[in-house]
Amino acid sequence: MRWIERWAGPMFRAVTRLEELCLATGILGIALLTIANVLVRTTLGTSLLFAEEVSRFLIVFVTFVGIGYATSKGRHIRMTALYDAMPLRARKVLMLLITASTSLLLFALTWLALRYTLGTVRELGAVSPVLQVPRYLVYLSAPFGFFLGGVQYLLAFLKNLSTSEVYLSFEKLDEYDDSPPKGI
Known about the structure:
globular, mainly alpha
């Protein structure tokens, strides 16, 4: 199982770096467009027509890319009442089941979203009102984000397969911080 560490480690870092780059660019773009629109509106009395539309596109993009990034940090919401009460071996088996099934689900959603986007949405020919951008290009954010999430869950599955500990993601160990909150 040494091959998992040698292959999956660089893959995890590359995918996470891509997600960070996409998220940083998207959020920075939203902020800059909002600031520019406010400045133009207060100085010239008119809005940048494209600012709201591009900001919406970026919000959709950031939302879907965030699926994989949250997975890479082990930050998805989890219902753990039963899981926490299980012995380590049972938690390990359950985590393998969770990461494998979630990865498969996200890859299936990737395929379905891609088929819907490149088939139905593209065939409808809908475009955005201001920039006339084909809607299917914006909708491609969904399969892209699902795919990144699927890769992250697959990497978490491989990590759990190759170690005795339980991992929430490729790098995030499933552990609790029992220290009291700061300031108490």
